[in-house]
Design brief:
This protein is mainly α. The protein has three domains: about 1-30, no CATH class; about 40-70, no CATH class; about 90-185, Rossmann fold (3-Layer(aba) Sandwich), CATH 3.40.50. Helix content is about 40%, strand content about 5%. It has helices spanning about 10-20, 35-40, 55-60, 90-105, 115-130, 140-145, 145-150, 180-190, and strands spanning about 110-115, 135, 160-165. It has a three-stranded parallel β-sheet. The model has no long low-confidence stretch (mean pLDDT about 85).
Amino acid sequence: MPDRRWSDGLHQAVEAKEGVPIRQNTETAASVTYQNFFLLYPKLSGMTGTAKTAEVEFEKIYNLSVVEIPTARPNLRKDLPDVIYKDELSKWTAIAKECRDITLREQPILIGTTTVEKSEMLAQLLNEYKLTYQILNAKPENVRRESEIVAQAGKKGSITIATNMAGCGTDIILGGNIKFQVRKQLYTILVFL
């Protein structure tokens, strides 16, 4: 967008990387929180799969109620009771053991972590159990393969570790994405011709 620039030197860093003239940082004259920005609108509504967890905030700040719409079909998922561990290492070790047991049944596994550090700690534990996995945590060495990792996350016996920022709402196809596999094989064949 014209006359729009990222703040805190980010725009200058991109300009330096791209080899274009570096311009001065702009100064923020005013700012508004998302909450106050949304309150400027006369009507608010929306739809999401995660609003129920923020129901109190929606009611308090926006005076909006949250309505849970049931699924079209009965839920087949079996919700188990919470398990509480005395420390994080015990929790992640239990997750690694569970991964080992599930991979014997060749089920695909998707594990969500809140930070890059936690995803790497889990990866080390999975290494100790000699389990293969893919990791999505926005680190530069993983970014190039991100679309491939997401495309194959539903493959038989696969383990995918993802931080909150990974995937961006991408559907995971059970059995893996065959179209992606075919395209990758074609690309490999064409490169070596």
